[in-house]
Every structure is written in C-alpha cells, then in structure tokens.
Amino acid sequence: MLRFTSALLLTSITVSAADSVQDRIATVTNTPGLVAFWDFTKREAPGQRFTAHVPAGAKNDYALDAGNYIKDLWNAGPDATYADFPLLGSGPFGQAIRIKAETNPDFRPLLFVTRARLHDSPLDIKGAGKAVTVVVWAIRESGNHALAGIWHEGTDLKEKTTESIAKVERGQRQYGLFAGLNKEGAACGHVSENGASSFTNKYALHKCNSAEQSPKVPHDAAPEVLAKSWQTFAMTFDSKSQQLTGWLNGQSGDRWLENPQKDRLLSYAANAWLQGRLAKIPGLQEGEDPKFPADQYYNPAEDKPVKVTVISEKEAKRVELREYAYTKVKVTLLAGQETERELVSLRLNPWWYPHGIYEPKNDGTGGPFTIGRVIHSSRSVGFTGWIGGVAVFDRALTAEELAKFHSLAR
After folding, report:
1. What is the Cα–Cα distance from 48 to 130, expressed in whole angstroms?
2. Which pLDDT tens digit goes with each residue over 216-265?
3. What is the CATH number of domain 32-252+351-407?
4. Domain spans of the chain?
5. What is the mean pLDDT of residues 83-111?
6. pLDDT tens digit string along 15-69?
C-alpha cells in the first residue's frame, strides 16, 4: 500500500509540474500582440530544429538554425551545430540552452532565423509607428552583450578584427535586447532608425538601461541555485510615447547618466543635443558644427520642467538646474534672460527615441533574427549563461504584463 501511495504521489507531482509548465507557456502565448515565443521544447520533430509558438493562422513558425557568423563573414572557424548549445533540462518553460564562453576566437555560435524566412513577416518589425517588446528569461553567467533581436551591427566598421574580413556588410540593426552593454547586467533595449550609426559615432547609440542589474551565476551552480536565479530581461519601445525602456524582473526604474560629455560613447549624444540647440539660433554660434546632420540632432522637449532647483542667486544673476523628462540642464539667467544652457544629465531609462525602426528592403540589407549573440565586428564572446525563453511582441507590453512574466520564472 505504501509503495502504491508513493507511486501515486510521484505521478501526481509529475502531472502537476507538467500542467504548471503548460500554464506558463499559455500565459505567454495568450498575451495579445505575440509574434513568436521560443521555449526550447517545441521542435519541428524530435531531435530537429527549435520552433516558435505563434498565433493561430501564422504562416511562419521561425525554426532556428545553428550557425557560426565568423565562418560566414570571415571564412574562418568551424561550423556550428545544435550540439554547441547544451541543454539544461529545466527552466521556466521546461528547457534552456547554454551560451558558452567560447575560447576559439573564430567560433561564435548563435541560433538564428534567416532573413529570407523572416523578411516582411510579423517578426520583421520595422517602419514608422511600430512598437516592439522583446522578453528573454535568462541566467547570466557573464558578459553584457546580446540576448536576442534583429541586430546585425555590420562588418564595415573600422576595427582590427575587420582587417581580415571576407564579406563586408553595412549595419542592419532594427531592434535588440542586450544584457547591459554600458551598464553590465542591466536590461538594455536597442533600436535603430537607419540600421547603422548614431550622432556621427560609428555605433548605434539609441539604447536604454534598466535601473536594476542582474547578478552573475555560474552555469554549473547547484540545480536549486539555478532554479532561483532566473532573471526576466525585457525591452519595450512605445512609438506613441517615443519611449524605449529596459525592464529587469518586471521593473524598469529610473536611470540617468551624469556628465554625458565625459562618456566614451554617449558624449556623441550630448553633442547631438548641443548641435540641435545651436542650430535653432540664427547665425553661426560658437561651438556649432554646420556640417552636423540635422536628422541626428537629439533634442527631447524642454518646454516644461519637471523640477527646478536654484543652484545660486546673486544680484541679477541666477543659476538653475532644470529637470525635464529626458534631460537635466543648468541654465544661467541675467536679469531674467537666459544667457547660457549646459546639459548636465541624460536619461537612460526610459530613453527618448523619436524615430521609426529601420526598414530594410528585400535587397540584402536586412539582418537575421538571432538568439544568444548578434553579428558584430569586435567578435567578443558576449553574454554567457542559460536562456530559457525568448518572446517577441508587436506592441509595448505594460508593467503589469512584464511583472506577470517574471512571476513565471520564480
């Protein structure tokens, strides 16, 4: 009787666990706006490629190929196969793949949907007025680079690693979710309006960073540790509010970059703010670059301050710190007239993005959708760890929806 009871109990637990996984999957697939959801259990057939859950009637299930982009573009290194992505056997949706810290500099494996199979499909989110959300359930072992998205950096950048490149390609960036970039471990959303660079820098710089940052967890930690270590990375772009937001575990948080002029990359955004402001003043101003491209100015609205702090006031001179929605500006006034304006802080989360998403034509200027890595010229290892789910939506999910998604990882 005891043996029967134990077996019955074990069966009950197994069925309950299966039901729980199916319920979690259903929570994602039943969320409006779903384009594709890879849980790494759904396949074309046993042992074949991973495919995505897609809405009823969809014509593409976005099967994932394995590839080594170094071999594709540099003609170096071995082929990649599914064997290069070890499976955990558990995760928020029952399975997870591992992105390893590869030691061979000519081997950077990734999973991808070819451009030919996604072009003009619902996954190819692009153009004016379009919104996007990318969610990745992951355990970060190390790194700050890509998790998932359509983000081919281009191999035309002047890098030491591109000196030996066999195939030069222009940037093909649309949208992507990263594990921090300039803020390692944060949820970093990236979008591009032109597929290429921003603010005259060679890199794309429209990006946000969640306030919180994920911890590092060894890939071979004890199962009970891994089970408690899942993080929910997400990015949303709302074209109506023009906000690009990073979310970690259902929380976005407020993040600012002080003294952006001193930042290695975002100093270019600070200069884009300055050039846009100076261009509005009649005549050539001191510090103005008349050759700066007008479509690269960065000037979020500064008509109504959120907060004003008086820094100093003496006789007719008054210095204020004015906080706006996306900038903090030090303003000097003489007898009530503004005489000087200095950018002192840029808001990183959410980030103001006034453009549409790069819209490549069907002429080879569009990139693939990749998971685990993106194609980039520096060829660094990038993110390492476990990925247990990737979902893409064609709208900006709400804080409540993203918090619910994180509850699936607990």
Report:
1. 33
2. 999 999 999 999 999 999 999 999 999 999 999 999 999 999 999 999 99
3. 2.60.120.200
4. 32-252+351-407, 260-349
5. 98
6. 445 569 999 999 999 999 999 999 999 999 999 999 999 999 999 999 999 999 9
Tokens, residue 77: 């290194």
